[in-house]
Every structure is written in structure tokens, then in C-alpha cells.
Amino acid sequence: MSADDEEVHYPYAGPESMMQSLGMGGYDEEFPYPKTVARLRAEAADISRKEEKDIFVEPSGENLLLWHGVIEGPPNSLYEEGIFHFDIHINDGYPTEPPKVSFRTRIYHCNITSTGDIFCDALNRDWSPTMGIRDVLKILVDLMRNPRPTNIRQPGHHLRQKFLHDRADYERIAREWASKYAS
Question: Can you give the residue ranges of the UBC core domain (predicted)?
């Protein structure tokens, strides 16, 4: 075997070297899950290639565990013409566990708390590992078009009662808030 035919063996340099060789940037000791990172990078690339109409989302800089987004209130909804900001917080259990989504813009909605947390089955018990960030975006648009007061697991949620028993006032306040906080 000549010197040109010799196999070269490189010592394993640890996870940081592996991540860099896979094009995944630096290694973060708090988030050593390369499969999750790879999936999130692929989802970010897919979303940037095929953006959704009236909604935009991207990772927060290099932090793939926090995404920031903006959604226009869907046409013919209570939130029409509003511009709503939201965050998607992803934990190390993703995609087996759903991300936590919260609105940063105040919104009067029976599935969204005063702190912006979203309560709906699609982002909780109905979540599946086959779902991803694009599905989250579709869920948000659908919730804005079709509030689901029966889909709330939070006891004592007063907006649920308002939606079910005084729909006209609920709709008036939702439009008022969209105009006041999301313009």
C-alpha cells in the first residue's frame, strides 16, 4: 500500500466537531439534540422557500428554539386588518412534544389568555410528531377564523362564556381590540 492509498483516520473531536461538519454551527451544551436541530433547520428552510400568505415566521437569530412571527388577521374574521406578533417556543422534546405558542400582541380571543398563551387541542393532546412549524401556522390562522370555545381546557375562562352567551358583545370587543392593539 503506497502513501497515497493509506486510509486517514481522524480522531473523534466531540459533538461540536460533528455539528460543524454537518453544517449545523456550534454545539450548545444546553441543547445537544442534533436531530431536533437538523429538523428545525430543514423546517426553517422550507418555510423560507414557500412562505404562507399573510403570515411570516423565522427563528430568532441563531436560536432555533425561539421563533418570532407576524400574522395578518385573516379576511372576514374578527381580526381582519390587524397585525399580530407571536412567538413559538420549542423545547427539547420537539417534535414529539408540541411547541408552546404565545401571542405578543394583545388579542381578545376565547382560545388565548390575557398573557397570550394559546389553548387548543391541536397544540396539546392532538399534536403529532409528524406535525411541524408550518402546521402551527395553519392552526393559528384557523383559530383566528374559527374560535373554538368548546376546545378550552382552562377552567373559568371568562371569554368562553362571553363567546357562548353574548356573541355580539364578544365580536364587538374582539374587533375593537384588533383595531386598538394590532394596528
Answer: 35-183
Q: Is residue 1 part of a domain?
A: no
Each residue of 130-141: pLDDT tens digit? 999 999 999 999
User: How high is the pLDDT of residue 29?
Assistant: 47
Q: Report pLDDT digits (tens) over 1-30.
A: 444 444 433 333 333 433 343 344 444 445
Residue 20 lies in a domain: no
Q: How would residue 154 be classed by pLDDT, with cut points 50, 70 and 90?
A: low
Reference 18, options 8, 27, 9, 10; nearest CA is 27
In a domain, 149, yes or no: yes
Does 41 fall in a domain? yes
Contact 26, 20 (CB under 8 A): yes
Task: State phi, psi for 85 to the nearest 5 degrees.
Answer: -100, 140
Query: In angstroms, rounded to a whole number, what is the distance separating the alpha carbons of residues 58 and 48?
Result: 8
Give the CATH number of the domain where residue 164 resides: 3.10.110.10
Q: Count CB neighbours of 66 within 10 A.
A: 13
Q: 27-63 burial, b for 16+ CB within 10 Å, e for fewer?
A: bbeeeeeeebbebbbebbeebeeeeeeebebebeeee
Q: Which domain holds residue 156?
A: 34-182
Nearest to 35 by CA among 112, 81, 88, 96: 96
